[in-house]
Amino acid sequence: MSQYTLIRSARKTIAIYIRPNGDVEVRAPRRAPARDIDAFVRAKAQWIAEKRSLVLARDEKRSRFALDYDSRVLVLGEDWGIRTGRTGYDLQGRQLLIPNGLEADELKSACERGYRKLARDLLPAKIERYAARMGVAPASIRISGAATRWGSCSGKGSLNFSWRLMMAPGEVIDYVVVHELAHLREMNHSPRFWAVVAAAMPEYQTHRAALKQLQARLAEENW
Predict the structure, then answer these.
(1) Do both 34 and 77 map to the same domain?
(2) How many whole angstroms separate alpha carbon 111 and alpha carbon 106?
(3) Number of independent structural domains in the chain
(4) Average pLDDT, integer, range 90-103
(5) What is the pLDDT of residues 118-171, one digit of tens each?
(6) Region 9-21: what's the mean pLDDT?
(7) What confidence score (pLDDT) does residue 54 get?
(8) Stretch 44-67: mean pLDDT, rounded?
(9) In a shared domain, residues 199 and 168
(10) Does residue 118 share a domain with residue 58?
(11) What is the rounded CA–CA span in Å between residue 199 and residue 163?
(12) Which residues span the domain enclosing 19?
């Protein structure tokens, strides 16, 4: 393996990253000898090949992902159908409602609007319940389009939740709510913070693991 992009910085170790397009990026200390970097990359040749194969396969799957009116979409941890109607959702029928006659690229945006409506309807009651239990009060609540964060808490006490969170099971959504509310007590991820989370939800680690699995699925489906 000889082709890679080298980025030098103040870091202390050499690391290899595989970019989404399969390119290899090597990050190394500023003074690391080129021969040492090359030797490190050669020693990791098999790992690089295997990782590139996985990354490229996922990228191909993402590029082939497309929605139509017969698709199943993930809502509250279950595969729901798509039904034509006024943008929204049908909890009893387990269907996401979107307008008729949309093209594939428009379907995705319509689904997002359905997820946002569900988030606006579902989250306030969850937040109110756990906030009372934890003795905190958020300044405001907002639904965001964040792709890499399920939720966040600003220094002013405003909570933000990604509409993609509506794909998670209800108990996992609860965990993210608890996580962000805990930041109103501890604006960090210190042991004190995790103690606040555990006090409200002792089984939180199970839900953290479920979020990682969900993130992998969303990456494959290009959400």
Answers:
(1) no
(2) 9
(3) 2
(4) 93
(5) 999 999 999 999 999 999 999 999 999 998 899 999 999 999 999 999 999 999
(6) 92
(7) 86
(8) 85
(9) yes
(10) no
(11) 26
(12) 5-64
Return the structure tokens found at 156: 């002013």
**Are 94 and 197 in the same domain?**
yes
How many other CB atoms sit within 10 Å of the CB of residue 6?
15
46 and 109 belong to one structural domain: no
Q: Tell me what pLDDT residue 1 has.
A: 54
Structure tokens given for 85: 């109607």
Query: Which token pair is 37?
Result: 């970097």
